[in-house]
Design brief:
With 676 residues, the chain is α+β, with helices and mostly antiparallel strands. Among the domains are: 2-278, Beta-galactosidase, Chain A, domain 5, CATH 2.70.98; 577-673, Golgi alpha-mannosidase II (Immunoglobulin-like, Sandwich), CATH 2.60.40.1180. The protein has twelve helices and 43 strands.
Length: 676
Amino acid sequence: MSVEHPVWEEHTVWEIGHGDLRCRVEWRGNQLFWRLIHPLAPGGRTQPATISAVAVQGQPVQWTRLVGAEQNGENVSCLKVTLEDATGRLRLARAFELFPEHPFVRVWGLVERVNAEDVPPLIDDVEILRLELGVTQPVTLLHVEQFSWAYPKDFFTPRQVSLRPYIVPHELRMGSFPSHYTAPSSCAWVALREGPPDPSDETPGSGPGLVIGIEFNGKSRLRAWATADSVTLESCIDELAHRLRSDEPFEMPAFFVGCYHGDWDEAGYVTQRFAEAHVHPPMPDERYPWVQYNSWKYGQEINESQQLAVLERCAELGIEVVVLDLGWARTIGDWRPNPVKFPRGLRPIAERAHALGMKFGVHVAIAQMAPDAPAAQAHPEWLAFGGDDYYGAGAICLGHRPCQEWLIESLVRLVAEEQLDYIIQDGEDVVKRCLRTDHTHAPGDSNYANSTAGLDRVIQAVRRAHPHLVWENCEDGGCMMTYRMARLCHTSITVDNIATYATRQGIYGASYPFSPRYSVRYMEDEPTPYTLRSAIFGGPLILMQRIGDWNEQEMADAKRAIAEYKRLRSLIRNGKVIHLVPPRHNVERYGRGWDAIQAVSPDQMRSVVMVYRALGGPDERMICPRGLRVGKTYRVRYADAGRTEVRSAESLHTDGLTVKLEEPGSEIIELELMEM
């Protein structure tokens, strides 16, 4: 690291970096600018961009004084610059972090009051990100949509957008949008590079580029536009009206920017490696992601004797964690076991699961509450609004401090009393709009108050009390795929539409921005080799059927699929995902035609290709694996066809593998390097 000027000068420049990556921060003209310098950035560097935009009651804050700067250079190089406004009432801290092993910069910020006696200001606009690129040709941007109930045939779809000069800015909605029932929103990630879009899904382009991720669960927007010689990206919080407390700074959403060289798969891979190192919670053990049984198909019928019997079958199958879904509690918002279904509580099930070598967890819709819940009866003012949009329950306001305290206490007690190892956090849209004037947040601030001050605080408090607890993000089935949730939770459900085709469509798109271990797929269809394999690629393999009713053949098929999953999960978890043949739009429950996805180990010694044929299409398809060592030879094994080939990496990429399948059908092809 180097400091080019002392921090108290009117025009001050700082520069920090590792290797080829540099981050330059500049204070001039009462504004803070930043730029990224790296050979892989378009033009080798970004352009100076402001990074201090904050508005109070509609007026931009004028930062007129540089208070100071701090730097450290241990495992992470960090520069924090602190500014003060003209009135001396507000301070802004902007921090820039660089990481030795990853070409990424992460930026975060805090706004706080200097004098606690001042009238609390209302922050109503904050710029999360501004990035400016000097370019010589059109830029292509890639984004991936989240799951949307409004678009059951078109979710987690990778979309390329050509940013051309003077065209209307392209706008993306990100985070938890209540309107995901009427319009789609995107995962909190984009990749971009110079040049035109790929001509087809199966002919990827290549070149230097940038990836961007946003760590915010609430509603936000990202806009991108081009001029003749530049591209600008900016992101802001949607619906912000935050009353700044004296005892709690305003946490500006963090973002990260990284550099890569290659195709969109490489953009995804560098993002995932960075996220694994610096965003995700550590994996709970070396086996993770686990094989899971979920009681959903038993519905409200679940009870102690029934689930104790199911546990024995789970152990026989090799399942590693057992989860009771909706229906175990007294009611939604009363997070105690139903005394009729579970007269001894959940502990007998937990103890038996543990004795059989399995972990135990439950489903909790943390932001929902039924009208008959004791807390709702005692505190009707906690409801953001009533209604029955979530199984007869309304929505509590997580931005209201008493709600937070009650929920933290309830969950901490529940985990301890029932010996829980695992929680699925669910609900119908955590970030509700709340206009109540008797809550601890400002009216209209529910977007920020629910997501950052509320959801964050609850999950973090429970995890501190129970560090062993594994947390799964469901949030209405893949409707809040952000890097803030990725920081809070070990894994996330991608698709609440659990048809076999939908599970593959979800993981195909989600595995661009997120690691496979972070992307869960439900398997609710009746167990066959095809349906079970549709859920193998990715995070925890979750079986949701009535396992107690399975016949011998279904048990045998499930045992084989679980064994395949366990053999391949470390390769898929740690490998680079190669998107070979995308699932075609889900025109029917089971889709049409062929799709294929590949994982390659970091050392390129092993690879696995998952191939599927849904309904229709030709009987035979050529699949061309990529990402292998040039000039090397691989042994190719077909799990079902029972044949082995010896092929060069060049031949595999150029000539491909010929796969023949019935409809519906699947094949697992494993590749292993034969020589060093």
